[in-house]
């Protein structure tokens, strides 16, 4: 009897582990290649804290984040506001909600370094929860990471009163789903959102905006798709947006960002939709010089929102 019970418990444990591990085993080639590139990069200069636990779930999982602090040589404008606390940009990676890793921020190393040179801290968040989490778990995890930042950020030298979101693909979707909880949290003040090719209306994704993957969205009831569509959360209190999307994106249709732009316009939310001609999902078919142009556009957007009223004509090239 004891042996049988042990076998049952062991089988259940192995099954649970498999559910968490399987997504990593089935990681798409593009994500694997990005991870390989990141792993080959040299360590970054300056202070970086890795694998800070923002949430524990017994028995198997803990969810973590990394903090990339401003460089010591940074001409930090923000120090003139509140000493020893840095504005913070939260990065939420892509990966179809079940793949990817917080380390993927280093795919945009030059942009990361520009931010740090200007006195901005970057927090990269892991949220993936395996096959058992569906859409609800990653959303919950991102909300919990931001709540942790509001409660603990100052202990780490971060000022959550000067907060920006930077979401890529699924990460952009998750960031937008977290906006209502951010705005309900008095410890957080969201200044802007950088949004890259994120799904905003999952009903349209099921209708063809996810291209070959549209049938996967059709497996969910329409009411669930609508519930997890950030397009329906937009209101006049949302912060300014800078949106990027490519015309050749075959993972998330450009229509998704156009829907978001129209809804933001409807509610009077300041925003810019930057359409990238022939840009694929991730703009990996664009030159490094083009990437630098997009990064400079991001800096022009975020610096005055982190440092209002200051002269921010810094050298960020």
Record keyword descriptors for this entry.
Rossmann fold; alpha/beta; 317 residues; single chain; 19% strand; disordered N terminus; 39% helix
Mean pLDDT: 86
In the CATH scheme, the class would be Alpha Beta
State the CATH architecture: 3-Layer(aba) Sandwich
- Give the number of DSSP strands: 8
Return residue spans where pLDDT drops below 50 for at least 5 consecutive residues: 2-26
Give the percentage of residues in beta strands.
Answer: 15-25%
Tally of individual domains: 1
Question: Would you tell me which CATH topology applies?
Answer: Rossmann fold
- Give the overall form: globular
Q: Report the total helices.
A: 10
**Helical amount among residues, as a percent range?**
25-40%
CATH-wise, what's the superfamily?
Answer: Alpha/Beta hydrolase fold, catalytic domain
Describe it for me?
With about 325 residues, this protein is an alpha/beta fold. The protein has a single domain (about 40-305), classed as Alpha/Beta hydrolase fold, catalytic domain (Rossmann fold, 3-Layer(aba) Sandwich). The chain contains 10 helices and 8 strands. Helix 3 (about 110-115) runs parallel beside helix 10 (about 290-305) and helix 4 crosses helix 5 (about 170-185). The longest helix is centred in the first third of the chain and has 24 residues, at about 1-25. The N and C termini lie far apart (about 70 Å).
């Amino acid at each position: 009897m004891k042996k049988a019970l042990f076998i049952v418990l062991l089988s259940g444990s192995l099954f649970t582990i498999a559910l968490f591990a399987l997504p990593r085993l089935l990681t798409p080639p593009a994500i694997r290649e990005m991870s390989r590139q990141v792993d080959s990069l040299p360590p970054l200069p300056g202070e970086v804290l890795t694998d800070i636990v923002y949430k524990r779930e017994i028995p198997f999982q803990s969810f973590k984040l990394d903090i990339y602090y401003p460089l010591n040589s940074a001409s930090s404008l923000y120090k003139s506001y509140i000493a020893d606390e840095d504005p913070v940009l939260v990065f939420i990676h892509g990966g179809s909600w079940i793949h990817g890793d917080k380390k993927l921020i280093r795919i945009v190393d030059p942009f990361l370094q520009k931010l740090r040179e200007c006195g901005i801290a970057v927090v990269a968040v892991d949220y993936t929860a395996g096959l058992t989490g569906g859409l609800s778990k990653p959303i919950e995890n991102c909300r919990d990471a931001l709540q942790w930042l509001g409660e603990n950020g100052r202990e780490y030298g971060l000022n959550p009163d000067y907060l920006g979101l930077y979401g890529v693909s699924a990460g952009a979707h998750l960031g937008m789903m977290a906006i209502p909880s951010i705005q309900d949290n008095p410890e957080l003040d969201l200044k802007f959102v950088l949004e890259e090719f994120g799904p905003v209306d999952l009903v349209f994704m099921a209708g063809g905006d996810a291209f070959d993957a549209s049938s996967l969205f059709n497996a969910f009831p329409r009411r669930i798709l609508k519930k997890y569509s950030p397009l329906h959360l937009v209101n006049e209190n949302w912060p300014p947006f800078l949106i990027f999307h490519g015309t050749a994106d075959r993972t998330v249709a450009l229509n998704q960002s156009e829907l978001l732009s129209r809804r933001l316009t409807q509610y009077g939310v300041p925003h810019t939709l930057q359409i990238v001609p022939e840009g694929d999902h991730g703009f990996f078919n664009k030159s490094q010089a083009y990437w630098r142009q997009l990064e400079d556009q991001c800096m022009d957007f975020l610096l005055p929102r982190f440092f209002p009223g200051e002269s921010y004509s810094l050298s960020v090239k």
